[in-house]
Amino acid sequence: MGTSFGRGGATTFQQDLANADCILIQGSNMAECHPVGFQWVMEAKARGARIIHVDPRFTRTSAVCDQHVPLRAGTDIAFLGGLIAYVLNNGKDFREYVLAYTNAAAILREDFADTEDLDGLFSGYEPERRFYNVESWAYEDTEAAAAAGRRESPGEHHKATARAEKYGSGGATMRVKPKLDETLTHPRCVYQVLKRHFARYTPELVEEVCGVPKEEFLKVAEAVTENSGRERTTALVYSVGWTQHTVGAQNIRAGAILQALLGNIGRPGGGILALRGHASIQGSTDIPTLFNLLPGYIPMPSAHEHLDLDTFVEADAGRTGFWGNMRSYTVSLLKAYWGEHARPDNDFCFDHLPRMTGDHGTYSTVMNQIAGECKGYFLVGENPAVGSANGKMQRLGLANLDWLVVRDLQLIESATFWRDGPEIETGELRTEEIGTEVFFVPAAAHTEKDGSFTNTQRLLQWHHKAVEPPGAARSELWFYYHLGRIIREKLAGSTDPRDLPVRQLAWDYPTHGETAEPSAEAVLAEINGYGPDGPLSSYTQLADDGSTSCGCWIYCGVYAGGRNQAANRQPGSEQNWVAPGWGWAWPANRRILYNRASADPDGKPWSERKRYVWWDGADGRWTGADVPDFEPAKPPDYRPPKGAEAQDALAGVDPFIMQSDGKAWLFAPAGLTDGPLPTHYEPYESPVDNPLYRQRENPALETYRHAGNPYNDRRFPYVFTTYRLTEHHTAGGMSRTLPYLSELQPEFFCEVSPELAAERGLRHGGWATIITARTAVEARVLITDRMAPLRVKGKVIHQIGLPYHWGRRGLSTGDSANDLLSMVLDPNVHIQEAKAATCDIRPGRRPQGAALLRLVEQYR
């Protein structure tokens, strides 16, 4: 979504779903995985909205929808591509919106070639290195910006870094605005390229690829298009069912294209709600746990000789749009990090920042552990021995460390792998030969500490400590603050230049109580930022001269007026339905992003029914139900003068203010590693060939060649997909230790259809062994019509459902579904393909010990 619209966060908020005329839920089981937010889907249904669920399984979400559409796992782009083709071929796009607010009229370079021309590849592909040189994807007579601090070819840069994550707040950069053909007839304009690209995604092809009957698909297409346009809006909801694929970023791009064509972005009851997982998944990307980002989606600089701050900013900042102020955001961050030490004469300590040398994601880290290059590891609220793809590789990596720190509520599998992991049972690892020194540090629960969550709609909400943590349990804030304090004390007398970045850190947080707990509110205030007159109220106040500090520019304003805005709890009866007085949403407390697009180019609401933000000519300002996602005093008739930069270069008709051209991108000329348009590729492990192209899978996907990570071939005939249960939570550390939840879901199970059960001799309630080239696991059999067989390319495809919460510790124990998965990744964001893989299944329990290895070897 960042590449498409300018920011990677949800474009809308959960309560606004109630205003939708149609809701398409795909890649999500919202009723079970986000049950609190699902109340607004039910509210929409009560108001007459049509609710559609597209998912391989029939779930609790499906049960309350108007239509459930089962499809083959991993074929979402074919389905969405069919919807896009339906819109384009039948003139169903919201043409005025598309012309004004998207790049449909932009003209592409002559040397761009599409997958239709190259049998599944785009121009610029280099097969020997398996990546794209993206230069030919640009607009005519323009160029994409180089990577921050890198001067290699665009393809080289894209291979080395996960650029799509950077666009969480600020789209990819183009150096100048494109040439336009507003008649949309030029053969190289985006609109015509889009029509050609999706021409083959017919209802018949959707049926052939996805296994969705043509009649069912057309019902969806008619519902979505009839409920979009000037008077009506459709909302799109997705979750990890879209992201955890080798084409995960492109799944979301397809949804973004559909919503932009229908005019559903920036408008009430529309948008795309990217459902985040548990409490602060959004926050952990905003203030990132990702290797390639700094706070606020500022890219981590890459290793490059003589790289300085100006070179870094010039390489990545757009000259137009709000991302053109990147220097102010970066300098203010450096001031927050190093305080008085960050000065103009030392480049504001820019050289203190680490430099990326390539992919440092979690799966590359595992490979480095196994190779002996990574010696120590912190696991904080994560249990990769159960929760990550190919658990065996995770455990082999942990077993090869010098030291491991685990902070969690319980002794999880990643802390005890050395004595009770599956590889101990099979003899692949021996406890006495594992040299890893494990430090288990008990963690405080969220009820036992102050702090904020940033939830699925970019909303910061403060939680106050309810009780003291038990015994030695401490908050993460306590742990890292005191760890940093002790390290700084040890380095206090050091004269080694490499210690200077740590010694000069601004590390002066106030503490309180017997345990010297740091003030979480003081950290929030630092994140918000300060200027000469105290706490800042908006990121537009940030300066590039060192006069302001800010720990995360998109959060600037959360401590406006010196008050914790995340703790706002204004009753609904005292405010409008948008509820700006409950918590605080980034950026600037806006609840629907790009909401200038809720008005037409003249600033008038597209319709009174969908009135949201509009131009008040008498007052000379944008007004409405929400904080305008636009410069408040910029009139619709403003046109930038020649040479204008940053936000001044955007016209009064450019709603997508984080994009360099102010438009939603139907075609992405920059920002993605694997194509400017979504294309159906098969999952890396699939029982069928790609019916569209000779190119079977994503040509830029990432694989890891290792004996512990073999990939399946056609000897594994069945598809399986993993998912979560309402009664258990992620890898199980918070739920399998609780008796009530363990009683509700007491055993690891597999869902299979009656037809598959008959074909393989499976008995309801009995045992089954599920096998891949990595390992085999055993599960109780649940025979159910919820996993319907599908007919694809003339053959029946059976799918198996596996919840992923089980492991060897707790009250409810069992094998881990994620042990079956391989490590194969989306090339943009390095996320694993966990939602579509292949396996075999047979009745009975799996072999024990070394016999398990012999079974898997037979399949290999």
Molecular structure report:
The chain is of the alpha/beta class and 860 residues long. The chain is 25% helix and 14% strand. Strands 24-26-25-31-23-29 form a six-stranded mixed beta sheet. It has a five-stranded parallel beta sheet with strand order 3-2-1-6-7. A three-stranded parallel beta sheet has the order 10-11-12, with no helix packed on it. Strand 20 (613-616) and strand 21 form a beta hairpin. The longest helix is centred in the middle third of the chain and has 15 residues, at 476-490.
Strand-helix topology:
Layout: H1 2-5, E1 22-26, H2 30-33, H3 39-46, E2 50-54, H4 60-63, E3 67-69, H5 76-89, H6 95-101, E4 125-126, E5 131-132, H7 154-160, H8 163-166, H9 190-197, H10 203-210, H11 214-226, E6 234-238, H12 240-243, H13 248-261, E7 272-274, H14 281-286, E8 293-294, E9 298-299, H15 309-316, H16 326-338, H17 362-370, E10 376-380, H18 384-387, H19 391-398, E11 403-408, H20 413-420, H21 422-426, E12 437-442, E13 451-454, E14 459-463, H22 476-490, H23 500-503, E15 511-512, E16 517-518, H24 520-528, E17 530-531, E18 534-535, E19 584-585, E20 613-616, E21 621-624, E22 702-703, E23 718-723, H25 739-744, E24 749-752, H26 754-760, E25 767-771, E26 776-783, E27 790-792, E28 795-797, E29 799-803, E30 824-825, E31 837-843, H27 850-859
Parallel strand pairs: 1-2, 1-6, 2-3, 6-7, 10-11, 11-12, 23-29, 24-26
Antiparallel strand pairs: 4-5, 8-9, 13-14, 14-19, 15-16, 17-18, 20-21, 22-30, 23-31, 25-26, 25-31, 27-28
Helix pairs in contact: 5-10, 5-11, 5-13, 10-11, 17-19
